[in-house]
Each structure stands twice: as structure tokens, then as C-alpha cells.
Amino acid sequence: MALDSLPTRVPVRVAANPFENMHKMLLPRDVYPNSLGAALIACGEYVYAYYRPNGVQPFYVGKGRNARVLAHWKNAVKRKSTVKDSVRAHELEIQRILKRGKIPHISLLAYNLEESNESRHAVAERVLQDAFGIQSVLEKTPGGERLADRPAALLQKREDSAKRRPLSLEAVVARYSERPEIDREDLEGKASSWGASILLVGLSETYHSAYQSSQIREMARMYWNLRKFENTSLPGLKKGKSVLLAWTSKLSGAPVIVGAWRLRGSKATYHWASKRYSFPATDDIALRKEMLGLRLSGTGKNWQGPNIIQPATFVR
Hints:
By secondary structure, the chain is an alpha+beta fold. It has helices at residues 28-31, 36-42, 68-78, 89-99, 120-132, 169-176, 184-194, 213-221, 234-237, 285-291, and strands spanning 46-51, 60-64, 105-110, 136-141, 144-149, 167-168, 181-182, 196-202, 241-248, 256-263, 269-271, 276-278, 281-283, 295-296, 307-309.
């Protein structure tokens, strides 16, 4: 199936009545693999937050287990109310996001709480710090307390909660779901079915489990040294259709795909000073759903550096 024939449900332009065309808006099942449900069960009791796209402050925070985190999204899409009816503010905000052709960013700020040895006060403190990006926290020391500046979770590292870092729903899928393992031959088969070259890149120190998909996309599309492919697969990447896939081993130790986008290889920019390429990349909901959370065979060492995988029709 050609890449541009992959089905996507694109939300329509905002109508005068914000409740019109509800059936056109994306549901969670359109965005995430079916394995998300089982992955959420594995997260036990959790605290979650809804963010606007590219936002750093949540507009809704709740608690629950299983698929509770998705209930507000589903309610916002299915609600048939009129403007005069009473509508929960967070559901209306979700509607606005969906009608702009975007999706809300959702993170689990704390999870497996029933197994945690933390006090309720410690959990509440950690959740609030992660939710609002607090960087200055008080550290207890033998001589009292001191003010310590630590990067907030959304800015990359929070070593005080390294084992319980916030998880985006994409990270939940990648960490907890039992999706199939694929190898290079499988990727070559997908490249052939799409009629598209694949640029596969690994994200190590740059990846954080709380990052939004747009942030991961910016890391994955930028500044790759592809000189070793100049006389082989790079020409194929720069012509026709292309796909960008990003993986990391930081979630569970095994390499897993954490993002997938369409890649406009023919629009690549070559940076002479660094001798590296950057590529425009755009969202593709169906492609993302198909690839998110798939395991790569072997260890991360098998996939180090950028890899270009071509369909058989491109191979000379």
C-alpha cells in the first residue's frame, strides 16, 4: 500500500457551532495502537495530566487506573450537547484542540502508586513538581536544608525521581505494551509495501519519557551525518516518499520505536559546517499508530547510528 494511501482521519476546520462535526474528530483508538489498553493496566493506579499541544502547564489533572485517562477525550468527542448545555471546561478544551487538527498531550505524572513506598505527601510533591516544571526544590541535608536547582522533568533530567519519571501515553505504549519484535528484513518489507525509504535514528541522551511527540520529532529530524550513504542509499532517501522512525533503549533497556513521521527527503537541508542533514517531517496518524511501540530485534548496539532502509524497487 502506498504511503500516501494510508488512512488518516483529519479533523475538519472549526465550525461556527463548536459541537458540529463531532464525528470527524480523532478518538484515542485512531491515534494509539490497540495495545495501549493493556499497557495502561500495567501502570496500576496513576495520576495523569492533559496538556495543550506544546504546552508546559496542564489544563486538567486527574487520578485513576486502567483506561480512565482516556475517558475525558472520548466524552469530548461523543458529546452531542449544544453550546447552551453545561459542558465541562476540560472537555471543551479537548474539543478545541481536536478541531484544530491537533491532539492533546497526555502524561502519567505518577504510576504504580499502589506499589510505591513513598508517603502521600512525597507523591503529591513529586507530581506537582513534574506537572508544573518546578526547578528549584529544597534538599534535606545533615545540617538542615538547602535550595537546589534541578532541571525539571520536561527539560530532560530529574534524577530525584529517575525510576518514576513521567510517561507520555506514547512512552506508556513503548514501555509496557507487548507489541511484536521486528528485524531489518521486516523493515525492508514495510519499506516495500509503503514504496518509501526509511531513515531510522536512535535517540539516547536526548530522549525523555515525558516529551511530546512534536519534541521527539524535532530531535529525530535534525542534523544526521549520512556521508557513508552518499553513493548508496542516500539518493533513494532524497527522492520520492520517505519515512522517519525514531527508537530509544531508555524506556526498558530494549530498543523500541517511539515515533514515526512522513519525511520530505527531497527538501533536506545540508549543513556545510557540520556536514550533516536535517529533514522536514510531518505527522501521519496511521503511520504512527502502526509503528509506535514495536520492538527492534537484538540490542541497541545492533541499530546504532542512522540507518537508511530502502524498498526493494530502489535497490540497485
